[in-house]
Amino acid sequence: MIGPLLASILFVTSTQSQEIPARTVEKPAPTEGARTASKSQLSAEKLPLEAFAKLPFIEMIELSPNGQYFAGVFGVKGEQRILISPLNFDRTKIKMLPIPDETEISRIRWINDDNILISMYGLTRVFDDRWYISRIFGVNRKTGEFTKLLTRQTGQNAAQVIWTPSDGSAEILAAGQGSIYSDEDEFWPGVFRVNVETGKQKRVLKGKQYVTRWGADGSGNVRFGLGYNDRNQTSRLLYAKEGSRAFRTVDKADLGEEESLDVPFYFVPGTDNGWMIRDNAEGKSVIMEHNIATGEDVRTVYENPDSDVIRVKMSHDRSKLLGVRLNAKDNDFEWLDPKVKQAQEVLDEAATNANARIVSLSRDQTKMLVRIGTADNPGLIYFYDHAKGNLSKLASVNEAIGDRRLARAKYVQYEARDGLEIEGVLTLPRGRVAKDLPFIVLPHGGPWSHDSLSYDYWAQFLANMGYAVLQPNFRGSTGYGQAFVKKGQGQMGFAMQDDISDGVRWAVDQGIANPDRVCIMGASYGGYAAMWGIAKDPDQYRCAIAISGVAALRREVNDFGGSIRENLYRKQWRRMTPDFRAVSPLYAIDRIKAPLLLVHGKKDVTVDHGQSSKMYKAMKKAGKAVDFVSLEKADHYFTREADRMALLQSIENFLLTHNPPD
Questions:
Q1: 453 CB burial (10 A radius; 0-12, 13-18, 19+)
Q2: Could you give all domains of the chain from N- to C-terminal order, each with its CATH number?
Q3: Positive or negative, the Cα torsion across 153, 158, 161, 165?
Q4: Exposure string (b/e) for 551-587, b if CB count within 10 Å is 16 or more?
Q5: How far apart are CA 443 and CA 446, in angstroms?
């Protein structure tokens, strides 16, 4: 049994890799009473701001196919770096690779045991607009050299990876645009066979008009294309039989009217059948085997009685369905492969008071990277060899916090003014009675997202200062089914905002929050909600903090960055509110009474820095109380430690001035 053992090592502070025979070692007894007492004191004491500003030790961690190496984005000396390392790494000898400036990493994946593929995106000036540009790079484990791929594809998007090998070779299939001009043939992405080590490329399929995406089967044969025409927002599915290059349209959808195309993620060899996530007759999203040529359903491959399927996890060679991601807010992943499912059960039994998530697997599914954490601790990264039963700690996610248990969080439910039940996460400061507390409501970004019982460094930082924190999953949030998401349509700035305010009123009615000591804070869409909150409900909030927020809604919360789906996105956003200007904080400054703090990075490629600067100038002109912290090198996610420090310091100073916790 590894349960007692893991319970004892879950929050150790040592940074050295340690291998533990998980099924044979028992839980060690406490060595002395004084040690137990000091642990308790460490849990209760307040931590310095620097502990929360520390970058995660690693993110996007991926295990190599042979299970001997890992790669990821590491926090090193206050900045993020790309790392490829053996499992028994020596921090003094590992080589870090810089992330190119003005870019953000969207994905890291192994191509074979020696090479990783990095997908990046950024904003660049094109004529009088700023466009999102996507690119891919290969990085060799042995040399550390970057190789830019699809170099001859100079269009907006040249990073669509549609197939990766499973035999150890270094060639992938990727699609990319060769032009930014829609009247040129190269505008429509072609498919290329690309060597990730040398960068050599060979075209295997010429682009077709209006086809913006391609897909392949497990053997690397291009089998489908997705066409889209933004003039009428229609999409079509093109399909080719196994071994054929003759594509024909087999399905159509009007995306503007919220229809959707069902796209195969797996092709059954020797047939026209594909597996796809689609709604069944009852409207539940399931995995269906479907005859693509005839349009007929064959059988239901997988169905969850309580949740919709939203994504799948396939084996390394894409021949086997390993697991499914569900739309449940917790326990949102179910392993279907018996071997991996058994490993998850062993880990769950061990981590009885924590969440154990398998984040990456070797090709034989016996070696795994596991993140174990709780809402009140950032957690640890482990390497687990299921065949041997060995569990080895790689690192703490945040070594400054280590094994300390911070503020406890729990789910709460309250009723919105129209009777809709809203769920949120409530975090209460340690050592204080949950009564008449200074209070901060912290709406999430997105808005198509949700908060759950997982570690949130902002919520924990605020609770560490002494505030109770509510993170409401207002209507329009994900995690509660598609019907709940659609309840947000037409309600941006209206009922979506009321759900946030109703959460505050609930906390006041429960006696948790002091009604005279409430502030609102958020980032991205949450930053918009913070600004709009003090305009829509000016007497409810004592102050507001908007981080990378949107002050003036327009086509989207930010520009589309030259998206080929601009008209579709505009139509989708128009469904969210009938009048952008009527619910934009920039045009409601006369209603604002509370002081406002704006924080924004100049390298934000998600929400333009100008959103905050315009709000600041308008607030100053109107004689309103406003502070603006503009960070020269910060991006949307504050991936530099110096920027996180500046962010948290500005929050702390602002709150101590306008809503002190004591």
A1: middle
A2: 1-99+355-401 (no CATH), 263-336 (no CATH), 409-658 (3.40.50.1820)
A3: positive
A4: bbbeebbbbbbbbbbebbebebbeebbeebeebbbbb
A5: 10
DSSP conformation class of 144: -
Q: Are 139 and 146 in contact (CB under 8 A)?
A: yes
Distance (Å, whole) CA 573 – CA 552: 13
**CA neighbor of 557 nearest in space, from 596, 588, 526:** 526
CA gap 445, 435 in Å, rounded = 28
For residue range 120-129, what is the model confidence (pLDDT) as tens digits?
988 777 877 7
pLDDT tens for residues 512-522? 999 999 999 99
211-216 and 222-229 beta bridge pairing: antiparallel
CA distance 411 to 427: 9
Residue 372 contacts residue 379 (beta carbons within 8 Å): yes
Whether the per-residue pLDDT at 525 is higher than 50: the answer is yes
H/E/C letters for each residue in 193-247?
EEECCCCCEEEEECCCCCEEEEEECCCCCEEEEEEEECCCCEEEEEECCCCCCCC
Tokens of residue 641, six digits: 């430690």
- Judged on CB neighbours under 10 Å (0-12, 13-18, 19+), 138 is buried
pTM higher than 0.70 for the full model?
A: yes
The predicted structure's pLDDT at residue 487: 95
Q: Cα–Cα distance between 385 and 375 in angstroms, integer?
A: 26
Cis-peptide, bond into residue 100, ω within 30° of zero: no
**Residue 477 contacts residue 450 (beta carbons within 8 Å):** yes
At residue 231's C-alpha, the angle toward residues 230 and 237, to 5°, is: 50
Phi-psi group of 286: left, alpha or beta (phi > 0 → left; psi -120 to 50 → alpha; rest → beta): beta
Residue 273: half-sphere exposure toward Cβ, Cα within 13 Å: 14
Residue reference for tokens 């071997």: 339
Which residue, among 88, 89, 84, 137, has the nearest Cα to 113 in the 3D structure?
84
Cα 152 from Cα 169, distance rounded (Å): 22
Q: Of 89, 103, 178, which is closest to residue 134 (Cα–Cα)?
A: 103
Helix (H, G, I), strand (E, B) or coil at 334: strand
Question: How far from each other are the two terminal CA atoms of the chain, in whole angstroms?
Answer: 47
Question: What pLDDT score was predicted for residue 178?
Answer: 94
- Residue 71 has which token pair? 């790669």
Which residues have C-beta within 8 Å of that of residue 610, sequence separation ≥ 6? none
Let me know how long the chain is.
Answer: 662
Band of the pLDDT at 313, cuts 50, 70, 90? very high
Tell me which DSSP letter residue 188 carries. Answer: S
* Residue 623, both tokens: 């004689």
Asked whether the beta carbons of 156 and 176 are under 8 A apart, the reply is no
